[in-house]
UniProtKB/TrEMBL annotation, chain A:
CDD domains: TM_PBP1_transp_AraH_like. Keywords: Cell inner membrane, Cell membrane, Membrane, Transmembrane, Transmembrane helix, Transport. The lineage of its organism: Bacteria, Pseudomonadati, Pseudomonadota, Alphaproteobacteria, Hyphomicrobiales. The complex is composed of two ATP-binding proteins (LsrA), two transmembrane proteins (LsrC and LsrD) and a solute-binding protein (LsrB). It comes from Prosthecomicrobium pneumaticum. It comes from the Bacteria. This is Autoinducer 2 import system permease protein LsrC. It is a multi-pass membrane protein. PANTHER family: ABC TRANSPORTER PERMEASE PROTEIN YPHD-RELATED-RELATED, AUTOINDUCER 2 IMPORT SYSTEM PERMEASE PROTEIN LSRC. The chain crosses the membrane at residues 12-30, 42-62, 69-89, 95-115, 122-145, 165-192, 213-234, 254-280, 292-312. It holds the Pfam family BPD_transp_2. It is found in: Cell membrane. Part of the ABC transporter complex LsrABCD involved in autoinducer 2 (AI-2) import. Probably responsible for the translocation of the substrate across the membrane. One of its GO terms (molecular function) is transmembrane transporter activity. GO terms for cellular component: plasma membrane.
From TrEMBL, chain B:
The lineage of its organism: Bacteria, Pseudomonadati, Pseudomonadota, Alphaproteobacteria, Hyphomicrobiales. It is found in: Periplasm. This is Rhamnose transport system substrate-binding protein. It comes from Prosthecomicrobium pneumaticum. Its main location: periplasm. Keywords: Signal. One of its GO terms (molecular function) is carbohydrate binding. The keyword Manganese does not apply. GO terms for cellular component: outer membrane-bounded periplasmic space.
From TrEMBL, chain C:
Its main location: membrane. This is Autoinducer 2 import system permease protein LsrC. The chain crosses the membrane at residues 14-36, 48-81, 93-115, 122-143, 155-181, 212-232, 238-259, 291-311. GO terms for molecular function: transmembrane transporter activity. PANTHER family: ABC TRANSPORTER PERMEASE PROTEIN YPHD-RELATED-RELATED (PTHR32196), AUTOINDUCER 2 IMPORT SYSTEM PERMEASE PROTEIN LSRC (PTHR32196:SF29). The complex is composed of two ATP-binding proteins (LsrA), two transmembrane proteins (LsrC and LsrD) and a solute-binding protein (LsrB).
Amino acid sequence: MPRSTTSTALKLVILLVLFAAIVAAFGLYQPRFLQTSLVSTVLQFASMLALVALGQALIVLAGGAGIDLSVGGIVSLSAILSMMALQAGAPPVTLPVLAVAIGALLGAVNGILVTRIRILPLIATLGTLFVYGGLAMALTAGGSLSGVPQWLVPFGRGLVGGVPYHFLALVLPAYLAAAVILTFTAWGRWLYAMGYNERSAHLVGIRVDRIRFFAYCLSGALSGLAALVSLAWFGSGRPNIGLNLELESLAAALLGGIAITGGSGGVIGVLIAVLMIVTLKTGLQFVNVSTVWQVGIVGALLLLVLLLDFLIPRRRA
Amino acid sequence: MKMLKSVLAATVALAALAGAAHAQDKPRVAFVPQLIGIPYFNSMEEGGKKAAEAFGVDFIYTGPVDANPVDQLQIVQNLVNQGVEAISISIIDASAIAPVVADAKAKGLKLFTSDSDAPDSGRDVYVAQASDQGLGETLIDELVKRVGEDAKIGFVSGEATSSNLNAWIKIIQDRVKEKYPKVTLLEPQFAGGSSDRAAQLASDLMTANPDLKGLIAVASSTCPGVGQAIESAGKVGQVVGTGYCSPNTARSYIKSGAMGFTVLWDPAALGYLTVWAGKQLIDGKPFVASNEVPGMDHPIPYDEKTGILLLGDPTVFTAENVDSFNF
Amino acid sequence: MGARIAGSIGGRELTLLVAGLVAMAIFAVLSPVYLSAGNLYQVVRNSVELLVVGLGLTFVLAIGGIDVSVGMVLGIAAIAIGNLLLAGADPWVAALAGPLVGAALGAFTGAVIVFGRIPAIVATIGLLGVYRTAIFALLGGSWLSGLPSSLSDIFAARIGGFLPASYIVILAAYLAAFVVLRRTPFGLHLLAVGNAEERARLAGVAVRRVRLAAYVVSGTLCGLAATFYIANYRNVEMTVGSTVALDAIAAVVLGGTSILGGRASLLGTALGVLLIRVLQNGFTIVGLPSLWQPVVTGVLLLAALSLERLAASGGVRRLAFGAP
C-alpha cells in the first residue's frame, strides 16, 4: 500500500506543522504560556484521552465501519465497577487488574455485538454507550466512590522530570507497542489489510472477525487503563468521568490521520493529535478565550484537516 | 517526537527571558463557575466585575461548558500555571479539586471556594451565599407552610453528581424526618442540565402521584421545566412549585401561580464578595468575625472554625416582591 | 408499488406496536394512574420534538448518511424563534422562521458533507462542535426565558381536550414524507442512492443533489421541532438539544431504518419514538429512578436489533416475533 503510506506521512507533516504553529502562536501572544509546567499540564490532561483514542484508532483502522461510541461509558463503568469490587472486599492490590479486565470485558460485549450478532458498530456501541454510561450513573446515584488505596495516588499525580508517571508508564509504552505491532507484525498487517479491503482479506485467509473482536477487547482494556488513571488521579471513582470522551477520542483519531473508512493511518499521528487538542485547549484558556470557543475550534479544525486531506491528493493528481 | 521536544525546549528557554518582561500591573482574581452560560453564574460574573473595579484588581471569569469535574480541574490548573494570585472555584465535585490545591500552595497562590464548597481540600476560605443548612431549611419550611404538614413532595434536581445540590436535598430530607414526620418526600429525580427533561420528569411525577402537593426544582436549570410542567398539566393551585430559582427565571411562573415562591440569594452580591475576599487574601489581610465590605450594605460574618464567609440569609421571592429584583 | 408498501409495514413495526402495548398493559397493572388521560397526554406531548427530528433523520439515514448535530440545529432555530417572539413578531412569522433557519443549516451541513467529501459521521461531529459554540455565542450566557405564550396558544392547544394541535402538523409532515418517499421520483432516487450510490449515479440520478436535499429536509424538520419546542417550553437554555441526536438515532434505527441506507420506515420511526417515550414515562411512573432511563433505551435498542438478527439467522424466530 505505497499510496496510503505516502499520504500518511504527508498527514503527519501537516499535523506537526499545525501543532508547531499553535504552540508558536500562543507563545508569541503570551510568552508565559511556554513555561516548563505547560508540558506537565498538557501531558497530565492528555493521558486519559490518549489511551482512549488509541483504542478508538485501532477499531477504526480495522475497518468494517468500525467505531466505538461507548468508550466514555466504558471508562466510567470500569472505574465504578472496580471500586465497587474493592468495597465488596476484593484486595486493593487487584485494583489495576480489575479496572483493565472489566474494561476488556465491556469491550468484548461490543465485539460480540459487532462480530457475532452483526449489528453495525455505530449502532451497537451507541446502545452500549447508553447502557454503560447509564449504569455507572444509576448504580451510584451520581455519587463518587472513595477508597482508592493511598499507594495508588502518587501514580496519578506524581511527575518524573516534569512528565506524569502515568504518561511514562502507560501512554508511551501503549503507543510504542501499538506502533511496533502495526508496523512489524503479521497481526498489524492483517489489521491494515482488512481495514483496506475486507473481502480480499477474507479471501487470503485472514480471520477478520477474530481480529476485529480482539480490537474491541483491546479498546475496552485501554479505556479500563484510562479509568485506572482517573482513579489514581482523583482518588475516587466518578460515574461521569468518561463524559464526552467518545466524540473527543474520535476527533483525535481522525485528526491524527486515521481514515474513517479504515486501513490507513498510524497511531503516532493520533498521539500528536491528542497532544495538539489538549495544548490548544490549554492555550485558549491561557489567553483567556472563553471556553465556549473550544468545542467550536476543535470541530472546525477537524473539518479543516479533512478538507485539506481531500484537496491535496487532488492537486497532485 | 524528538522534533516536538526540541521545539518545546527552545520555546521554553525563550519564555524564561520574555516572562520577566511581561509583568502584571494589577493582581488578578479568578472565579471558576461550575459551568458557563447560565444566568446564575452570569450574575456572579457581573458582581465580580463591579468588585474588580472597586478594589483595583483584574477579574478573570472562566469555566467549563459542561459541568464536568475534569474540565473544571483543567481550567483551575491553567490558572495556577498562569500564576493568577487568587483563584476561587464553585466546586462541582468536592474531591476532584484535591490534586491542584497542593500545587497552588507550592506556588504561593490563594485557592478558595465560592458558591459550592470542598471543606476538606485545604482551601483558604469558603465564600458562602448562605449556610447550606439555612437554604435547605428555609425552602422546606416555606413550602410546608403552603402545602401543609402531611403533604407529598417531589424533587427535580440537575446533575446527579453536583455535590452542593445533593447536600441541599440531604438537608431537606433530614429536616423533614426531624420536624415534619408526616410529610412524604419522593426519591429525587435528575434531569441533567436540560429544561425539557426537567419538564418531562416533573409531569411524570405529578401523574404518578396524583396527590402530589409540592415540587422542588433543586437546580436553577430545572426551574423553567418544573414551572412549565405544572402550568401545562393544569395543576396550578394544586401543586406548589418552588426551588432555588432566580427571580428572572421564575418570574412568569410565580405570577401564574405555578410556583408559590422561590428561594435564592443575590448572585451578583456573591460574586462581589468573592472578589473582595480574593483581594483580602492577596493582601494578606485576615478576616475578622464581622467584616465591613466597601460597597455592601451589611457586615459580613466570618466563622473562623469552618473558614466560611457568609453573605447572609437567603431571600424568599414571592408574587409580591419578585418585581423589585432583576437578576 | 403496493406490494412494496405492504412489505414496508413488516415485522419490525408490528413488533414495536406489540411491545408498546404489552409494556403499557404491564405499567397499567403496576400503577392505577398509568392509563389516565393525563398521563397518556404527557407521553404524547413529550414525544413531539423527537417525532419531528426522527422523521428528518429517517431521510438522512435512508441515503446512508447520518447527522449527530441535529440537536444543535434545533437549538439554533429555537434561539431565532425565541428572539423573534421577544421582539414582538407575529407568532406565525416566528413559527415559519424555525424551519427556515433549520433548512439553511441543513443545507450547510449537507454542503460540507457532499461538496467537502467528508464522511457524514466525521463532518457532523465537527459541525456539532461548531454549532454548539454558535449556540453559546448567540445566547451570550443568558437564557431566553418567560417567552410570550403566543406560539403555545397555537401549537400547545389541545384538540378535543387531548391531542396537542402540533400533531396536525406532525401528521401532515409524516403523510407528506410518505408521499414523497413512495410516490415521487425524488423518493425513488433517495432510496436508490441509499441502496447503491454508484449504480444510482450510472442510472442518471443526480446523486449529490439528492444527498444534499436529504440534509435540507432534515434541517427543516429540526427547525419545525424547534417551533414546537418553544411552544411547549417557552424558554431556551444553553444545553438545548444536547440529548436529541442520540435519542433520535436510537429511535429511528429501532424503527427499522438501516444506517446503511436504502430502507426507510416512517411508521417505524414514529413507533420507535413512541415506544422509547412510553417506556421512559412508564418506568418513572412505577418508581424507577430517572437515572435508569438511558439504560432502558440502550437495552431496548440492542435487544431489538439482536433479536432481529438472531431471528433472521433462524435461531429464535419464535422468541422474537411470537405467535402470529
